[in-house]
Amino acid sequence: MDRIEKVRTIVDEILLNMKDAEERRCAYLHLYGVAQACAMLALKRNENVELSVIAGMLHDIYSYANMDSNNHAHKGAEMARDILNTLNIFNEDEKDLICVAIWNHSDKSMVHGWLDEILKDADVMQHVLYNPLFDIKENEQKRFRFLMKEFDLEH
Ligand SMILES: [Fe+2]
Q1: Which residues have their alpha-adjacent CB atom under 5 A from ion ligand 1?
Q2: Is the pTM higher than 0.85?
Q3: What's the number of CA atoms in the CB half-sphere (13 Å) around residue 50?
Q4: Residue 101 Cα, ligand 1 centroid: separation in angstroms?
Q5: pLDDT, tens digit, for every residue of 101-137?
Q6: What domains can you pick out in the chain, each with its CATH number?
Q7: Ligand 1 centre and the CA of 154: distance in Å?
């Protein structure tokens, strides 16, 4: 089993234990949707696809595990580190990259490191592409405009 699938096993275990079926549905859609968008962005930007997918799968795990989105980026970074420590298959640099990206992912107006930016952009992509007919949240409009440019989708 590769490292993406090892992390997925833990994410699945947490999500399967969610009591509320509608919240569970949202969690699967969002975490795995963001993970796929992370893969696409990492391929486009020639960055590490494996770490990008793993950051996507874990980025909101705290919110869904605890049904609490308060300060979820920072608490989520700590929870992700616990999960990665338990798995014991990542080196310190890899754990730092993933956890810092999760820590920063709510600051959509700031620009951080390559993985932080992939994660923030993937979060926006999943929100917008879930239903492109919905209005785009104000704090996500600028990033989505840049993504349209990056993917040559401007008409
Ligand atoms: Fe998210």
Answers
A1: 60, 123
A2: yes
A3: 10
A4: 12
A5: 999 999 999 999 999 999 999 999 999 999 999 999 9
A6: 3-150 (1.10.3210.10)
A7: 25
